[in-house]
Structures are given as structure tokens and as C-alpha cells.
Amino acid sequence: MLRHEIMNSITPIVSHVETLNEILNDETSWTRDTQLLTMETTQDVTSALKTIEKRSKGLLHFVDAYRNFSEIPKPKFGFVKVQELLDRLVFLFEGQIKKQNTTVSIKVVPANLKISADQEQMETVLINLFKNALEAVNGGTNPKIVLSGRLDEQSNTLIEIQDNGPGIISEAQDQIFIPFYTTKDNGSGIGLSLSRQIIQLHSGKLTVTSDPKNSKTVFTIQL
Known about the structure:
7 strands; 46% helix; Heat Shock Protein 90; 2 domains; two-stranded antiparallel ribbon; globular; alpha+beta; single chain; 5-stranded mixed sheet; 7 helices
């Protein structure tokens, strides 16, 4: 479990470090006279460094909280804007999204939609789900991921991650939340199980619907 979460955080950190190295090694990013970074490049560097700092701190908090991981720590609730959660998620995987030529869209209605949640734990869940979606669409035709937040008829908040990957067969849909069950050659079978437990600690539900014939899979967080 620890290794899985560490790898999920280290991957985007490494990606942003590689981007920083490319920027700093690119002579066009420097002015010839003053040898100073341009304003646009400075903003890119600052943004990447902030992301690395935030994810690194989140990872340290995670490892510390799970030092004894016989049970998931109780959530520390606070109000979190869904739009900000999804925006940070996309920025975190910006490099991989571009590399795969994946189209990612975000739609939150109402725009100021908020949830009561542990922000770090919710980010862990969203990272798991988004990473799976990216892997699902990788190599496909017209890869697309849609992130959305809305209210249902009972005023529950729904956060959905939809992709147009190959889908999940019905038999596997009943199994993927079981610890250590995985459909991937290099999967650990921990991510979805951990994510569902975190959502349950938030008194919510994490479900999946998938239609392989129409290349559609939707993971839904209901709070």
C-alpha cells in the first residue's frame, strides 16, 4: 500500500523535475544579454516547484500517517472546492497528458460546488482514479477524459471521472474493488480498494459503470 501511494506521487514529481531540467537547459529560455529567465519561463518554473513541494509534503504526511497502516486515519474534514481539486489534478499530470495527446475537460456545476472532506485523502483518491483513466486511454484513438462535479436529485455531490478507454468487462467490475485483485500485469490491486475505503470514511460511495462496446467507463464518487 505504501509503495503504491509513493509511486503515484513520485511519478508526477519526476515528470515536473524533468520539465524543469528541460527549461533550464534550453538556451532559448534565457536572454542573451542578462542571462535571466523570461517572465513566462519563470512562471512555469515557479508553478512546477510549487506542485513538487505540495505533492512531496502530501507524500510525507501520507507515509507518516500510514506508519502503522492497520487502519486508514480518520479524515480531517474541511470545505474543499471541487473545481480546485480537479484543476490541481490535471496540472499534476500535465506532462503525461501532453505526452499521450489526451484531451481532458472539466465541468463543475455550480461553479462554486464544495464538499466536506479531508483534502489530502480526497486527492489520493482522485490521483488513483485519474491515473487509471490515463492508462486506460493511452494508445487509443482520440483519447478523452471528462472530469465533472454536480449535484444529483437528492442533493448529493457527484464527482465523476469518465474515459473512452477499452472498458472493464462486467465480471471484473464486481472484483476491482477487492484488495489485491488487479487486471493489470504490473498492478498491485490496492489503489481502488484504498480509494473506496477512504470514500466510505467520508460516508460516501465509490462505484463504476463500464460499457466496453461503446468505450465508456465512469467512476463516480458520491458524497
